[in-house]
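Sharing in case it's useful to others searching the archive later.

Someone asked me privately for the predicted structure of Sigma 54 modulation protein / S30EA ribosomal protein, so I'm posting the question and my answer publicly. Question first, with the sequence:
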Amino acid sequence: MQFQFNTDSSIEGNEDLAASAEETVTSALGHLCDRLSRVEVHLVDANGAKGGADDIHCTIEARPEGLRPQTVTHADADIPAALRGGGKKIRALLESEFGKLSRR
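And my answer, the predicted structure tokens:
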């Protein structure tokens, strides 16, 4: 599985943050990683330097092999919380999609 990490200009996207994001998201996905060709994570600070509640937006796009890409967005107060919330949402979405396929 290929992992891509992107940030906006308000968030410093260094190697440590990219590694942390990859670890958080892939651990949330668990066994589903084997069924994905690529995962893209985008972090955006909606308010920039102003701050505020739930201003970090995490968008995760997962590309399951043989299916259309699936995307979720989660907003939270800080980067780790946004990554965890986005990871939980994408796992739930993918489990639902794979569950539908197994019932066919």
